[in-house]
């Protein structure tokens, strides 16, 4: 058995957790939209053709915010193709994912669906093949009440009220050579600044996300951010980060240590934002949007064999296992530790495409193992992220040194008098953890949820719920707080209440 310690003090806080931290992402790709959220003719489809069983699972996750419509798809998308009578919409080749896009689902259908699942939409504008004009027209179409060409067109399409979309992305991964309309930092920075300017002139209430690097391994990483912010600083509110992890070497210790990479990534982007703030003598602070994050590697080989140009190509259908769920838990903890600067995060993606929810055409919908840590954080992680003191034994792995076996974060919801501690035990041994709670003396344990499994590769296929959490975690109150037993390789959620 190993020993660790966690101290929480009511006075020591990191910052408010923005609900958009628990966002997700639906792109027009693979079976995310067609056969995912939308499947007219499915026994559980509603009158608009959207699957209610999928909606129920999304509601379980309490996803507050969903990025749309891409992704790489965005950079070749004409939003005008997806509005107006469905019968008149063009079928287009999507060059990003070698798919035929039918445009059956477009802006209004997606926004209607998002309302059904109680999520706000994070709309993205195409800065690959399009630019300022298409972007400002889309803002006018979505957000202007009436009395102008684009707002009246929306009304004529049957959508009377403006949507009031608050958060908008200025393109997608524009630093990547794979992107349609890939740009240099200078080209993108100028275009993003001018687009941002007129989007905000169209609706001054919106917030904008500029594209950061596609991942921290890009050769232009950090210089890209600096140059983009050089042009856009006063026009945007967030800069994006994207990151995907995989256990390519089948090295569990190293895999679980990858949350340290995310920590480093967030710190680096925060540093460049603050450097630009100082350089520009600005009073404004740029925040971070991790608008794509997940594990993505299981499906890489299979995807090479999928037939091109069909609609709903079954690509990026990663089947997640238990060890992926542990890493997702650690990544969520890392995000909470940066709640002061990281305001938006979108688990990429939500249904079928590298997703917590899978569906079968005409059949079932089910929860992958990664569903659970994401759900626990989203449901119990609203409030103030606490600055914890964590003492843990450490290990070295292939790529990381001094990796703590225990990762932990805590969120306090003052009004509900709820304190939740999230912890991952990366050790193969039981971890006895003394949790000291200062200022929470009268709080009692409501529940200790645990996600654990003997087989790190266990999955949840259709009709097989191998990896599911239980509430039999062992935590007991003592004079100073709690003694918690984190079982080997486990995700833990300790819920406390002051009521
Ligand atoms: O989420 C899948 C893809 O990953 C997105 O389309 C792209 O932005 C990223 O490279």
Structure explained in plain terms:
- The protein has two domains: 2-9 and 387-497, Immunoglobulin-like (Sandwich); 18-380, Glycosidases (TIM Barrel, Alpha-Beta Barrel), CATH 3.20.20.
- The longest helix has 21 residues, at 259-279.
- The chain has 499 residues and is an alpha/beta fold.
- It has an eight-stranded parallel β-barrel with strand order 3-4-7-8-9-10-11-12, surrounded by six helices. The chain has a six-stranded antiparallel sheet with strand order 2-15-19-20-25-22, with helices on one face. A five-stranded mixed sheet has the order 16-1-21-24-23, with no helix packed on it.
- Helix content is 25%, strand content 26%.
- It has helices spanning 52-61, 107-116, 132-143, 149-156, 185-202, 223-232, 252-256, 259-279, 300-303, 322-336, 371-380; strands at residues 2-9, 13-16, 23-25, 65-68, 92-94, 99-101, 120-125, 167-170, 207-210, 238-245, 287-295, 342-348, 357-359, 365-367, 384-386, 389-391, 394-395, 403-404, 406-413, 418-425, 431-438, 444-452, 474-477, 481-486, 490-497.
- It is built from eleven helices and 25 strands.
- The mean pLDDT is 97.
- The two termini are 34 Å apart.
- It is globular and about 65 Å long.
- Alpha-L-arabinofuranose (AHR) is lined by residues 27, 70-72, 172-173, 292, 348-349.
- One of its GO terms (molecular function) is alpha-L-arabinofuranosidase activity.
């Amino acid at each position: 058995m190993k020993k660790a310690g966690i101290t929480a003090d009511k006075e020591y806080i990191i910052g408010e957790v923005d609900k958009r931290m628990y966002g997700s992402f639906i792109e027009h790709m693979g079976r995310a939209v067609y056969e995912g959220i939308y499947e007219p003719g499915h026994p559980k489809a509603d009158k608009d053709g959207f699957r209610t069983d999928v909606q129920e699972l999304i509601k379980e996750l309490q996803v507050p915010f969903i990025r749309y419509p891409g992704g790489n798809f965005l950079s070749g998308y004409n939003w005008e193709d997806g509005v107006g009578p469905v019968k008149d919409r063009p079928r287009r080749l999507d060059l990003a994912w070698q798919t035929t896009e039918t445009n059956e689902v477009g802006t209004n259908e997606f926004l209607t669906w998002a309302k059904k699942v109680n999520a706000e939409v994070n709309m993205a504008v195409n800065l690959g093949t399009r630019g300022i004009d298409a972007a400002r027209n889309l803002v006018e179409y979505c957000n202007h009440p009436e009395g102008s060409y684009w707002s009246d067109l929306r009304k004529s399409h049957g959508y009377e009220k403006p949507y009031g979309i608050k958060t908008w992305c200025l393109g997608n991964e524009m630093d990547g050579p794979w992107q349609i309309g890939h740009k240099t930092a200078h080209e993108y920075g100028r275009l993003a600044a001018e687009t941002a300017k007129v989007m905000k002139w169209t609706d001054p209430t919106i917030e904008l996300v500029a594209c950061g690097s596609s991942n921290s391994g890009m050769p232009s990483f950090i210089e890209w951010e600096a140059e983009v912010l050089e042009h856009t600083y006063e026009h945007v509110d967030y800069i994006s980060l994207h990151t995907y992890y995989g256990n390519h070497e089948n090295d569990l210790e190293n895999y679980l240590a990858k949350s340290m990479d995310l920590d480093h990534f967030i710190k680096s982007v925060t540093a460049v934002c603050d450097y630009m703030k100082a350089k520009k003598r600005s009073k404004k602070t740029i925040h971070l949007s991790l608008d794509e994050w997940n594990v993505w590697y299981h499906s890489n080989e299979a995807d090479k064999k999928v037939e091109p140009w069909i609609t709903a190509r079954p690509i990026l259908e990663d089947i997640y296992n238990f060890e992926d769920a542990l890493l997702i838990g650690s990544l969520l903890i890392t995000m909470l530790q940066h709640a002061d600067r990281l305001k938006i995060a979108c688990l990429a993606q939500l249904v079928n495409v590298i997703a917590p929810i899978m569906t079968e055409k005409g059949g079932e919908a089910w929860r992958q193992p990664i569903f659970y840590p994401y759900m626990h954080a989203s449901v119990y992680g609203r409030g103030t992220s606490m600055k914890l003191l964590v003492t843990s034994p450490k290990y070295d792995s292939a790529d990381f040194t001094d990796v703590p076996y225990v990762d932990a974060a805590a969120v306090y919801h003052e009004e509900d008098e709820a304190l939740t501690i999230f912890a991952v035990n990366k050790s193969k041994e039981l971890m006895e953890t003394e949790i000291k709670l200062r200022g929470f003396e009268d709080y009692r344990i409501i529940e200790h949820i645990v996600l654990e499994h003997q087989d790190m590769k266990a999955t949840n296929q259709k009709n097989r719920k191998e990896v599911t959490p239980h509430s039999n975690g062992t935590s007991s109150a003592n004079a100073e707080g709690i003694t918690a037993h984190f079982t080997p390789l486990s995700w833990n959620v300790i819920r406390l209440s002051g009521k």
